[in-house]
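Note to self: keep these together.
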Amino acid sequence: MSRHATMLDRQRLKAPASITDTAARALGSTLFGHLCCGRLRIFLDMSGVNEIDAAGIDMLIQTAKRAHGMGGDLVLVRPCPLVRNILGLEYMTRGRQRVTSF
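Structure:
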């Protein structure tokens, strides 16, 4: 696969500071839209997230399952310790950027 084609199946997004209820549903819809458009590898920058509730956690889990089912992946970039602990995630280091894939 060419480099050009590989870049087309990826999407980088920045999560909002608060991923609760309505914001979680909106972000989930956005992520699902990217998956449906063939962007099966989504990199979600979580560095600015300072609030997340059960709806936000559930949305991340459901989106990851949906991406995996379509042959893709949801990669959380720099998730806060709260999110990592709740999801039981381990950091992987790529260069200077920390990423978590689940």
